From TrEMBL:
Keywords: Hydrolase, Magnesium, Metal-binding. The keyword Membrane does not apply. This is PHOP2 phosphatase. The active site is at residues 8, 10. InterPro entries: HAD-like_sf (IPR036412), HAD_hydro_PyrdxlP_Pase-like (IPR006384), HAD_sf (IPR023214), Pase_PHOSPHO-typ (IPR016965). Pfam families: Put_Phosphatase. Mg(2+) binds at residues 8, 10, 179. Belongs to the HAD-like hydrolase superfamily. PHOSPHO family. It comes from Platysteira castanea. SUPFAM superfamilies: HAD-like. Its cofactor is Mg(2+).
Amino acid sequence: MKFLLVFDFDHTIIDENSDTWIVKCAPEKKLPNGLRNSYQPGHWTEYMGRVFVYLGDNGVKEDEMKRTMTTIPFTAGMIDLLGFIGENKELFDCIIVSDSNTVFIDWILKAADCHKVFDEVFTNPAAFSSTGYLTVQHFHAHHCAKCPKNLCKTKALKEFLDKQLERGVNYTQIVYIGDGGNDLCPVMFLKKSDIAMPRQGYTLEKKISQLAQSLSPVQCSVLVWSSAIDIMSYLKLLIKE
């Protein structure tokens, strides 16, 4: 008996969007209008690339970015939940699939000392260049029309599951915890025995209920959460069964 927990990162593990939080490092804590308005739907990674260039041009260094990013609050109850998962790692494999980037996620999890809970993190690769600028790349290429250009979370999840199967690991249930529109694709991939846990009041919950209203509901069970304590209560029940 092993369960797979799949977490989104922004507005799920942390209570903010890491990509917009970094703007606190910009002069006057805001971006020029031209840059702000340059975002095109489906091309967030390219937009963030321009934001990082702007920060670099304005002399924002790695240590200042790191200091700022590690002040992001975690979602209510999340540290307790991650502690609980950590204590029960023999039952839970735990991964992150996120449209953030490796540098931000690494900084934030390590600062809170909860990085060891996660077996793998699937997100856009980022690194500092020799000139000290943060650069970000697409996670992968894919052909899914529903997802942004740089990341189809279903593809990332499927590849992980295939790799685990080759190692002889088959999960009793997948629990998918997220909040955003780009979490709908992987939720639609889940089977009847799996469970989606959308955050209350966020886009994913709204999209799942729209599907139910149009009589094409998702296959998996759905359990809404507002605090990570709700998620922990469910996992405790799962273990008891």
